[in-house]
Q: What sequence folds into this?
């Protein structure tokens, strides 16, 4: 868009229909513009080139956020001043990022992530739960160990020393948690547990370890890749080539006896813990991630199509076929909220339920098992029933790359619904103690 930048035009500017950044370029002053990002944050910007011709590199400079002291008039005056410096062959942004510390660089990344300007490998903005985990890793590991170092001068050896320190547990401690978030997108975070059963904010117990070190280095590498695209840093990514140790992929599944033990604990606590009991049963019968189950909306349940139409998951929108035991469970549940199947106490959002779900596993004598192990169990029983990897991936909602699958398939076919019904019926029988012990074989599908 191009028009003269005035208070009226700035006030009228909003994000695009799909929520992306929109820019209004000034019709009179070349390179001067105002952009609006997710969350309606408006900033005055200047694009320019140092040197003659289109081959000269394009530079991008942020003048400041809309509001005092930056109005259309003051921002325009500043843009003219900067263009005068540029006309004499000088780069006004030169040296601006030279003093940027690693902590400040991380802050910029997190600020962008909060407004949807950092995308995942699935080309979607990072979810709030993932950003919360990133914030924790920055504040508890990156900031205390290398936060004061100059971002442009960070070397791989310094990142390696940070990784070694995290792996040894040097950043371990107990911290106040900013939110009831303890796991990113369905994957448990072994270094952080939240005790949020009493206070809204809870506490985070950080233990460190090799797995945490690997995730911290991975995050730092992503931050530097993001920053390099925005010319905040340059040169090789200091996180590349750092040695970290990944833990063995978990293959914990529940056998027939353990499912009966869990089912008995659910039955014994059905009255006093109705919501977490229902959540565990839903996870067991569908293979949903805990985050997906707790965030389920009534509008996402398609009883006629025998499926769940999840709007936001780890891999984006996802359709999951469901069997008759799941239909019966959902139909039997009271509607405590017009929107959420599992609402929080205030009814204003979804419930977290991590702590009470863990307590029910403990009550069943399964202290080494948690909700994500039920997802593996669902996949393992599916394999035991003779279903192939492609079918199991569909049932569990693993990422799909095909254009037809992403854009045109609107309901699961009869074979998938039949598979979901067969598997959920077998699991329901095991939970209720209505079948003999069935051996459940571990499945490694990257659940």
A:
């Amino acid at each position: 868009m191009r028009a003269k930048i005035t208070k009226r035009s700035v006030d009228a500017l909003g994000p695009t229909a799909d929520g992306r950044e929109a820019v209004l370029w000034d019709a009179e002053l070349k390179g001067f513009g105002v952009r609006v990002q997710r969350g309606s944050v408006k900033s005055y910007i200047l694009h320019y080139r140092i040197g003659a011709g289109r081959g000269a590199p394009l530079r991008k400079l942020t003048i400041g956020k809309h509001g005092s002291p930056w109005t259309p008039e003051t921002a325009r005056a500043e843009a003219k001043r900067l263009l005068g410096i540029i006309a004499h062959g000088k780069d006004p942004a030169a040296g601006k990022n030279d003093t940027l510390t690693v902590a400040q660089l991380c802050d910029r990344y997190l600020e962008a992530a909060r407004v949807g300007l950092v995308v995942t490998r699935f080309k979607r903005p990072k979810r709030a739960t993932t950003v919360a985990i990133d914030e924790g890793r920055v504040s508890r590991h990156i900031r205390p160990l290398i936060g004061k170092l100059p971002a442009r001068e960070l070397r791989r050896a310094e990142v390696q020393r940070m990784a070694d320190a995290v792996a040894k547990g040097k950043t371990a401690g107990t911290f106040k948690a900013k939110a009831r978030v303890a796991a990113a997108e369905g994957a448990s975070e072994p270094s952080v547990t939240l005790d949020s059963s009493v206070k809204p904010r809870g506490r985070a117990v950080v233990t460190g370890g090799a797995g945490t070190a690997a995730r911290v280095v991975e995050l730092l590498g992503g931050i530097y890749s993001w920053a390099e695209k925005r010319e905040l840093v340059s040169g090789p990514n200091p996180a590349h080539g750092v040695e970290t140790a990944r833990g063995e992929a978990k293959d914990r599944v529940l056998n027939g006896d353990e499912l009966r033990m869990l089912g008995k604990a659910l039955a014994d606590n059905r009255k006093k813990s109705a919501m977490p009991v229902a959540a565990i049963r839903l996870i067991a019968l569908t293979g949903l991630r805990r985050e997906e189950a707790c965030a389920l909306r009534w509008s996402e349940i398609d009883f006629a199509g025998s499926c769940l139409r999840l709007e936001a998951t780890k891999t984006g929108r996802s359709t999951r076929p469901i069997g008759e035991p799941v239909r019966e469970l959902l139909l039997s549940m009271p509607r405590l909220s017009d929107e959420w199947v599992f609402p929080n106490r205030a009814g204003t959002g979804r419930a977290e339920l991590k702590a009470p779900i863990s307590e029910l596993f403990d009550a069943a004598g399964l202290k080494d098992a948690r909700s994500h192990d039920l997802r593996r169990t669902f996949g393992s029983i599916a394999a035991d029933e003779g279903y192939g990897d492609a079918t199991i991936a569909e049932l569990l909602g693993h990422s799909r790359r095909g254009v037809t699958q992403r854009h045109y398939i609107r309901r699961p076919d009869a074979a998938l619904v039949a598979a979901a019904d067969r598997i959920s019926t077998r699991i329901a029988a095991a939970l209720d103690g209505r079948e003999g012990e069935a051996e459940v074989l571990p499945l490694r599908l990257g659940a």
Q: What stands out?
A: The chain has three domains: 7-87, 102-229, 256-431. Residues 179-201, 401-409, 437-447 have pLDDT under 50 and may be disordered.
